[in-house]
Amino acid sequence: MKFRSKLVDIGCIHQLTKILGTISKITKTCTLILSEQQVVFTQNERATGGGASLWCELKQVDFFEDYRIEGKDDNNQIYLEIINENLLRALKSGQNAQCIKIKLVKKQTPCLMFEVSLPSMTAHTRVVVHDIPVAVIPTRFWENFQRPILPAYDIKISLPNLKILKNIIERMKNISGFMVLSASQNGNLSCKVETEEVTATTYFSNMEIEKNDNNMPHRSQRRSVDIDEDDELVEARIDVQKLVTFLNVQQFNANKVMCGIVNGQSVHMFLQCGDMFFQYFIPAMNVSIL
Q: What stretches pass through the bilayer (predicted)?
């Protein structure tokens, strides 16, 4: 099992630092999946932890040079458990680096070694080395870390400007720890929090609706109300802090941010930024918010 690569483009170093910084705000640890074509960061919470999960995949060719891997199976894959803050610290030390060499090494424990070459006022290059301990995940557990199977959404709707949305949700979470996220086929999106004393709702209109084979409505799960079908709401009650956590991705210049809702079951966030694909699943909380 061998892996080594280099980061030489300063823009790629900054972008990867942003990605790790965002993931670090969501979870302290994650699984790093290395393969010939992709680098994936994934994490699945246990049901007792709220059940949220993320999947972030990058095309390795867009970030790395001299990328070489000899994995533990025929597909040349390596699965590592990492502490995000350790990886982030190494990347932050190389924000002005000439080059960052990354290599999987065996010391007292397996480590990802980051060799950061920094510019110097002299003829000699300064080199900072970070040995980041990792845990190698045995192949028998790999099936627990596969790309999520997408559900059949009742609706898939675009989100408004994430910075504006985050500011609004940050205020609303002071009212309640749960939020009802609702959407309709006519492009309306609403965020509602309530207690016994107060109800607060924010509305967005003219949002894009994405229709595809995976967007087939579950009519039996919707509320039976005598209103126009386009006005019929699909909704899920979620942990508002998990939504705030996802909205930390607003620092990316995303091409598209979509929200898929399975009525009463889950919310699934999609973000695409160039060749980076980021997914975040939030399960519905079937408890009273009053």
A: none
Average pLDDT of the residues in 170-178 = 93
Listed residues 92, 110, 144: the one ending a domain: 144
* CB 156, CB 209: distance < 8 Å: yes
Show the domain range for 178. 155-211+232-283
44 and 102 share one domain: yes
Tell me, what CATH number does 269's domain have? Answer: 3.70.10.10
- With respect to residue 16, please indicate whether it lies within any of the assigned structural domains: yes
| Beta-carbon contacts of residue 181 (< 8 Å; ≥ 6 apart) | 189, 190, 191, 235, 236, 237, 238, 243, 259, 261, 267
Could you tell me which residue, 199 or 290, shows the higher pLDDT?
199
Taking the CA atoms of the chain, what radius of gyration do you get in angstroms? 21
Position 289 pLDDT exceeds 70: no
Look up the pTM and report it. Answer: 0.85
Tokens at 254, concatenated: 């995303």
- The structure tokens listed for 162 are 């994430």
